[in-house]
């Protein structure tokens, strides 16, 4: 099974510059970005067998990642319209 990382810049390549700018200048975005990155890494570790999680725990992590991605995307859209 191929396990993929989901870095935010790969998820939204058209917003790569904005992601970098917001990480440096927006504390809330930077905090959410860190949580997203940590969650993504935890999912990859679980899927590759490095860490052992039950199916329900893995699914919960994936839901957290989706929620964080939605929040980050909303900030990116708002920043793009400012």
The helix/strand series, from N terminus to C terminus, equals HHHH
Q: Tell me the major beta sheet.
A: none
- Specify the number of helices: 4
Proportion in helices: over 70%
Strand content: under 5%
Are there runs of 5+ residues with pLDDT below 50, and where?
none
Report the mean per-residue pLDDT as an integer: 93
Shape: elongated
User: End-to-end span in angstroms?
Assistant: 42 Å
- Specify the structural class: mainly alpha
Number of strands: 0
Radius of gyration, CA atoms, in whole angstroms: 14 Å
How are the SSEs ordered, and which strands pair?
Blueprint (H helix, E strand, L loop, with lengths): L7 H4 L4 H10 L1 H21 L7 H27 L1
Helix pairs in contact: 2-3, 3-4
Protein name: YdcH family protein
Organism: Undibacterium luofuense
InterPro entries: DUF465, DUF465_sf
What's a concise summary of this model?
By secondary structure, the chain is mostly helical. Helix content is 76%, strand content 0%. It has four helices and no strands.
